[in-house]
Amino acid sequence: PSAFDHVSEAPPDALFGLMAKYRADEAPQKVDLGIGAYRDDDGKPWVLPVVRKAEQLLRDDPEANHEYLPIAGLAKLTSAAQKLVLGADSPAILEKRAATFQTISGTGALHLGSLFLAKFYQTPEQSRPVLISDPTWANHVQIFGNVGLKTDTYPYWNKATRGLNLDGMLGRLREAPEGSIVLLHACAHNPTGVDPTKDEWKQIAEVMKEKKLFPFFDTAYQGFASGDLAHDAWAIRYFVEQGFELVVAESFAKNFGLYGERAGCFHFVGAPAPNAAEITKKVASQLAILQRSEISNPPAYGAKIASLCLNDPTLFAEWEDNLRTMSGRIIEMRKALYDKLVELKTPGDWTHIINQIGMFSFTGLTPAQVDKMIGEHHIYLTKNGRISMAGLNTKNIQYVAEAIHKVVT
Ligand code: PLP
């Protein structure tokens, strides 16, 4: 008899299930608004031109090889990634209180961070929970749960305004047990597309400081959201400036289009204190042990590409240009969808479509309306009404707007 008789069948991943349904649909007019990856105006994956150049440089390099990277990853990448997130003149870097490990993209960074916190940020008296926005990226809860951290939620989405529920969020943070971990999306909140304004971030920081809460930033869309790298990292830099000790999970999947290459970094930033550099060094030594036992060393190919782009000024400028192309197209699609819904006189206020940012938009469509979008119009989106702006293009936008119009009227 099997020792696994008791194992029940888990439901398939909802998003990957939706993608399979889309692929199986033979209707020529089908549209995929579920995807979490950038598509060009022809609905095709886009290899960034700067990434193609970096790949060519790698191919032409006679010294290139497939050796293991160090446990902490490619040093040229981790140092550049630190500057990218924290800012080149960050006091945390100058004071040597930032430690960075290359990870298996953003998911791996979240995992390494959560493992570290499960091991080193729990008290014997009370386990410190992780507060996650409601709603959030579907994977957050299971990543933290897998390492035994308790998760709870804070309100985020205001259904009525289709914007941020700041009062609900702050209220919940005020009630949280001291020392709780708070997961924050640095920009382009997934799935809502709603980010706090600078003033709202300041209020969040104030409450978190007062309640001694620990920020865990997830940054998966730097530069991809607004097209401006510093703008999209503003919240993280502000929290560092405010003296928080914090961690950051960074993904290069979206902003480099390196989805499958699994490039990312985990950053630890120690609190400003006279012994901060010493603490950071000890933390890094423990992270090295965790990393060694989990993955030994991170994947090299995507890291080499990202590193070339981040360290060469010409390639860096071209990358910024590519980022503006992607974010610009997405912002244009928001505007186009909004204009079409207004033109069609679709009932309701659709300004949230243009106010939201990043790849995703929480449309406010109900589960029943989503079912109709899929069943009657072959337009695929997640049950919560989230659409990926990257799936829209000049060829399908009229069709999508008309379908939304039909399902809401
Ligand atoms: N965090 C958020 C909010 C995301 O949306 C994503 C990707 O969709 C990730 C993290 C991590 O993705 P990856 O592991 O592909 O870098």
Automatic annotation (TrEMBL):
Its cofactor is pyridoxal 5'-phosphate. GO terms for molecular function: L-aspartate:2-oxoglutarate aminotransferase activity; pyridoxal phosphate binding. Pfam families: Aminotran_1_2 (PF00155). It is an enzyme of class 2 (transferase). Its EC number is 2.6.1.1. It comes from the Eukaryota. The keyword Transferase applies. InterPro entries: Aminotransferase_I/II_large (IPR004839), Asp_trans (IPR000796), NHTrfase_class1_PyrdxlP-BS (IPR004838), PyrdxlP-dep_Trfase (IPR015424), PyrdxlP-dep_Trfase_major (IPR015421), PyrdxlP-dep_Trfase_small (IPR015422). The keyword Aminoacyl-tRNA synthetase does not apply. GO terms for biological process: aspartate biosynthetic process. GO terms for cellular component: cytosol. It catalyses: L-aspartate + 2-oxoglutarate = oxaloacetate + L-glutamate. Residues 29-404 form the Aminotransferase class I/classII large domain. Keywords: Aminotransferase, Pyridoxal phosphate, Transferase. PANTHER family: ASPARTATE AMINOTRANSFERASE, GLUTAMATE OXALOACETATE TRANSAMINASE 1, ISOFORM B. Homodimer. In eukaryotes there are cytoplasmic, mitochondrial and chloroplastic isozymes. NCBIfam families: PRK09257.1 (NF006719). Belongs to the class-I pyridoxal-phosphate-dependent aminotransferase family. This is Aspartate aminotransferase.
